[in-house]
Design goal:
Blueprint: H1 3-14, E1 17-21, E2 25-26, H2 29-34, E3 35-40, E4 47-50, E5 62-67, E6 73-77, E7 79-81, E8 84-87, E9 97-101, E10 105-113, E11 119-127
Parallel strand pairs: 1-3, 2-4, 3-5, 4-6
Antiparallel strand pairs: 5-10, 6-9, 7-8, 10-11
């Protein structure tokens, strides 16, 4: 790979976009993989952003989901255990575990391979002071 191509690739990695969602939606694997930040934004009504099912297609994906509006943003995560979507964040609980972000909060989410066939979304919640 030439120096020029290598530099271009590095710039593209650093230029990952910020995606804004203004309505309830299920995020695609590509949206999660291609965007460093995903902003949920609505001034008056809460919205839900559902992460794609955890699995090999999003293994290693990391992004920051930010409540960039006034209304609450709910993040929904699903784990894949033994080939079946049966659990939520961290591979525990029921499918579709939720995390609600109030105004000024954000969560870093990451898809992690837990064993040969198990994948889970994990989150770290933050509040901006």
């Amino acid at each position: 790979m030439s120096e020029h191509n290598l530099l271009f690739e590095l710039q593209e990695l650093n230029r990952r976009r910020v995606l804004t969602k203004t309505a309830t939606v299920t995020l695609t694997a590509r949206e999660v993989m291609d965007n460093r930040k995903i902003h949920g934004y609505h001034a008056s009504a809460g919205i839900a952003l559902t992460l794609p099912n955890a699995g090999s297609g999003v293994n290693g994906a990391t992004c920051r989901i930010v409540n960039a509006g006034i209304a609450a943003v709910t993040v929904v995560g699903n784990a894949l255990l033994s080939g079946t979507v049966t659990a939520g964040f961290g591979g525990v609980g029921s499918g579709g575990d939720t995390l609600t972000l109030a105004q000024g909060q954000f969560a870093d989410v990451e898809c992690v391979k837990m064993s040969d066939s198990d994948y889970g979304w994990f989150h770290d919640l933050h509040t901006v002071d």
